[in-house]
Amino acid sequence: MKPIVIIQHLALDGPEYFLDYLNQHAIPSCIFRVYDGDVLPDDVSAYAGVASFGGPMSVHDVADHDWILPEVDFLRAAVAEDVPVIGHCLGGQLLALALGAHVYKADIPEIGWVDLRASSAGVAGEWFGDRHAPRVFQWHSDTFALPEGASLLASSTYCCNQAYLYAGKHLGMQFHCEVKVEMIRQWLQVGYQEIDGHDLPSVMSVDEIAASLEAGMAQSHAQADAIYQRWLRGVYG
What does each C-alpha distance from 130 to 18, 115, 133, 225 come to in angstroms? Predict the structure, then answer.
């Protein structure tokens, strides 16, 4: 069984529940911590799939992060080699950029739990475990245009493009379904000023997020199970 490539962009933004899911199903993986100098492999076809995760940077911050352009090339090569990609938040934006779509500042940021709208009953059944309004955790101020040829899977009130599917197996998401309680608590400790700087209906307060974590995470992980199970069908059949 070929392993899954995991691309991590920040120490505080790791694969978390995604890695738990792989381990529970005895699926091998290799983590590349590009923020710490790890170089992505030359041959993407040696891997079964690619999972890219989040980070506070923009995909356009290439002067500050020398791994951005190589990762975009790596994701583009994965698509060309028919190696399924799954992108979480920044990872979904990087995949969109690799597919030729524009990534830009969103009209309004989203921080906290957000209800999505599945684009159809079929999509809800196939990707979201029959949840027509999946509830997911968000922390983003950028968004992506829908790549040409991609299908929109989900939207939210404040951000139209929340999830897309390209060529039947490459999934880009604006949200975080990989999060766990402790990681979000760490985000709140280092990012509370970003939250306090907004008075918007799309941004929950630090206290609201902290109080919601235990109850919200059980549903989030059930949602992630549905997404990961469906994506892995395209990886291993």
Answer: 20, 14, 9, 12
Which sign does the torsion angle of CA 29, 146, 10, 35 carry? positive
The amino acid that residue 19 corresponds to is L
Question: Cβ contacts of residue 100 below 8 Å, gap of 6+?
Answer: 147, 148
Q: 3-state DSSP call for residue 227?
A: helix
CA distances from 205 to 90, 146, 169, 188 (A): 22, 30, 36, 10
pLDDT in tens, 22-42: 999 999 999 999 999 999 999
Could you tell me where the beta strands, DSSP code E, fall in the chain? 4-8, 29-33, 49-52, 85-88, 103-118, 135-144, 151-156, 163-166, 170-173
Query: Which three-class secondary structure state does DSSP give residue 167?
Result: coil
pTM for the structure as a whole: 0.96
Instruction: Give the per-residue pLDDT at 24.
Output: 98
